[in-house]
Specification:
The protein is an all-alpha fold. The chain folds into two domains: 153 residues, no CATH class; 199 residues, no CATH class. It is built from 20 helices and no strands. The longest helix is centred in the last third of the chain and has 34 residues.
Length: 426
């Protein structure tokens, strides 16, 4: 009992303050919420890709015979540029809006300022116009930085009352427009100076500097096998065992990297090139968080149909359907897995093993890699694996990993079931 109290004190004194700092950080929350804001558009664009490039040749041939060879013209030429092709624009506006809202100032002007700031840093092509690549994955990190910096300036000026104030008789919509004028002027001047400074460097532009010095190195580390095992495998599970929503903590830091990899994969897929990254947002959702953190669907099935304990049997039936759709809080908190040294062992092992098997299978080209298509995290296996890659073998791989997870959970489940039966009988 004394050991458990010491352990609890350690968690409360050492771990919880760190978690609190990360989970309440306004910058990280603004980045996360800004990226989430564009998810409906991304999903609609992804549905168009799945339909237009349905990964079954027989279906493609049938549709071409009915509607003509160019039947899917509406996909890459129309819908994709207007949805997934503008991810950087959506992100810079969303990040700025979320950051301003967290500081309790009018958020809409911050979003507009961020878009202006982003375009001020873009370098036009010869003959005018902007490259479409600037609005996709290559501009994602610059979009985040532009959104944060421009909104921070806007917030500071608003808080200091360095704005044009109109009389109370002026309609509020007009008054808000004048309030944003001073921040707009400051942002324009500052970002023009930033553009001029980067133009004098070997990189030529802020976007090329961020892409080569920040974005690509972070992608290399964050999407590597070891980086994924540490962040998504170890830390995600570590936090969950202490009752902390590990997925939200890890994603608040890693989401920009995984999303950038997703959009880079989509650009390569669209161009018919080799897909560069394995670890993307969808890879995490459908392999590391498969049926929820810890891959707990096999455990739910065991509880529902093989448990002798009435408590576990009832819990398993309650948690079974949510787990099929990758939501497993009922089993994590109800079994519980939280603060449970017995069930923590398989809960740790299964996601680490899933990463190892799926990563190597994709790295060795045994199965396909994520194409960048955005699929809701609630899509159950094996459909999720098939949709994110267009390869039916990936869906089969999901099932095999779940069967392996069942073998890992089984002996620990038997121990816990026996313990629960003894408590019920007592």
């Amino acid at each position: 009992m004394r050991t458990k109290e010491k352990f609890t004190d350690f968690v409360e004194q050492k771990i919880m303050p760190l978690v609190s700092v990360v989970s309440s950080n306004k910058i990280l929350l603004a980045i996360r919420d800004g990226l989430i804001l564009s998810m409906p558009v991304m999903i609609v664009g992804s549905i168009a890709i799945v339909i237009g490039d349905f990964p079954v040749p027989a279906v493609q041939a049938f549709l071409a015979s009915v509607f003509g060879e160019n039947w899917n013209w509406w996909n890459w030429d129309v819908i994709n540029p207007a949805t997934m092709g503008l991810v950087a624009i959506f992100t810079t506006c969303g990040v700025a809006y979320s950051y301003a809202k967290s500081h309790e100032v009018e958020p809409l002007p911050a979003g507009i300022l961020a878009i202006v700031a982003y375009f001020l840093l873009l370098v036009q092509m010869d003959g005018g116009g902007f490259s479409l690549d600037s609005f996709g994955s290559q501009g994602l990190f610059m979009a985040i930085i532009s959104g944060l910096l421009s909104s921070a300036i806007y917030i500071w000026l608003i808080k200091k009352n360095l704005v044009i104030k109109m009389p109370d008789s002026v309609p509020i919509s007009i008054s808000r427009s004048f309030t944003a004028m001073v921040p707009m002027g400051v942002v324009v001047v500052l970002f023009v100076i930033i553009r001029a400074v980067f133009a004098m460097t070997p990189y030529g532009s802020a976007n090329d500097f961020i892409l080569n010095v920040l974005q690509l190195p972070l992608l290399g580390v964050g999407t590597s096998f070891l980086g994924t095992e540490i962040t998504a495998g170890f830390f995600n599970t570590f936090f969950w065992i202490f009752g902390i929503h590990g997925t939200l903590i890890v994603q608040s830091v890693m989401q920009p990297i995984w999303d950038a990899a997703k959009y880079a994969n989509l650009a390569a897929y669209q161009s018919g090139l080799q897909i560069p990254y394995i670890v993307t947002t969808e890879y995490l959702d459908h392999f590391v968080f498969l049926t929820g953190s810890g891959l707990t669907l096999p455990l739910c099935i065991m509880c529902a149909f093989r448990a002798k304990s009435q408590q576990l049997k009832s819990l398993g039936k309650l948690a079974l359907v949510p787990s099929i759709f990758n939501v497993n809080e009922p089993i994590i908190y109800g079994l519980p897995i939280v603060m449970n040294p017995i069930m923590a062992i398989p809960f740790f092992i299964t996601p680490m093993l899933s990463i190892a098997i799926s990563y190597l299978a994709m790295a060795w080209n045994i199965v396909g890699r994520p194409t960048g298509v955005a699929v809701p995290f609630t899509t159950p296996a094996p459909f999720g694996g098939f949709l994110i890659t267009g390869d039916i073998k990936v869906g089969i791989l999901q099932i095999l990993i779940l069967l392996l997870a069942a073998l890992i959970y089984w002996p620990f489940f038997k121990i816990w079931d026996k313990k629960c039966c003894e408590e019920e009988n007592a």
